[in-house]
Design a protein that fits this description.
By secondary structure, the chain is of the alpha+beta class. It is built from two helices and four strands. The protein is globular, with a radius of gyration of 13 Å.
Length: 96
């Protein structure tokens, strides 16, 4: 099993329900492409290093997941890239 961590930065202008729906959709993508979500860390609202889409703040989420398939992170990234509410994202493989 390969372990991965996906950092997702979500638009600050969203309501609580919309943010929760966005993170649920990301978790659904992980499961759809053969991964299992092990942990979701909500870091809350943080200040950005620089302005993105005229915003100085955003909500940060870190999702840890495992997958046998090496295609899973690529497929998840391809789908997260298209999501309007996601400002930035980054998926990295964790060391064993």
């Amino acid at each position: 099993m390969n372990k991965y961590e996906l950092a997702v930065v979500v638009n600050v202008k969203l309501e609580d329900e919309e943010r929760a729906a966005t993170i649920e959709k990301v978790k659904e993508y992980i499961v759809r492409f053969g991964g299992t979500v092990t942990n979701v860390d909500d870091w809350g609202k943080k200040r950005l290093a620089y302005e993105i889409q005229k915003s100085r703040e955003a909500f940060y989420y870190f999702i840890q997941f495992e997958s046998e398939s090496t295609d899973c992170p690529n497929e998840v990234e391809a789908n997260v890239r298209l999501m309007e509410n996601v400002v930035r994202y980054l998926c990295v493989k964790q060391e064993a």
